[in-house]
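hey so i finally got around to running the thing on that chain from the lab meeting. sorry it took forever, my laptop kept dying and i had to restart like 3 times. anyway pasting the input first so we r on the same page abt which one it is
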Amino acid sequence: MLELAAGLLEQRTRFAERFSAPDLIERRLRIGATEASAMTWLGRFVGSLHQAFPKVSLEIVVDSATALTQKLAESQLDLAVVPDGLTDPRFQAVPIASSQWCWGCAPGLIDTGTKHHLKDLAEHAILLRPDSASEMLVGTTLRSAGLATTRIIAVPDFLSLVSLTVGGLGVAAMPTFVFDQGFAGAALARIDTVEPVPDLQYLAVFPATDTSPILASVVTLLKQTCDFSRAYQPRDEGEAEPARAES
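ok and heres what got predicted. didnt touch it at all, straight out
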């Protein structure tokens, strides 16, 4: 009886979402994002979502990609925006944006007036977050250049990575928005390298069995607002058009 009741309630929710006006849909959405998202586009997305679906209750969880993926698997989240790399067949993964990365250091640690090879950077300690995205971008890039990674210092979170780099402990690969004047600004120097850091693709990930029209609309809205190029993006001015899922 409980399974039948749950199924009927789910069907009712799907029916209401498909045929109701966006401003009448009531639902709680649990969305996960990483620190990089929270420092760039997440606030702008929340504002746009509230304009499009004013009665939707939103719960935001900011954590590492690994932790967010685990929360998805445990049904603690409806959707998460995480770096590419998830291959679990239980989930749908829709590409929504990419993040540009580069190397940086404290001013004066390295001559930033010239282009460097990675072997030049390897003379210093390399700060690295122990997560799959950093390993995929930074670790692979270093190994491709034939460099040993014995001088890597693991840093627990994104803000610590920025702080320790500003403090001159070593060099680090970071998203380019970190170098905005409104973020780290003059406290960091950007290093131009011969071997660039690849872009990092981000995905909107949600259960493969979830066919909710509103969730499809949220993914469309994410594609419109997800932008890692600038730190602390303000809420868009004016009334946002409701994000509609394509039929």
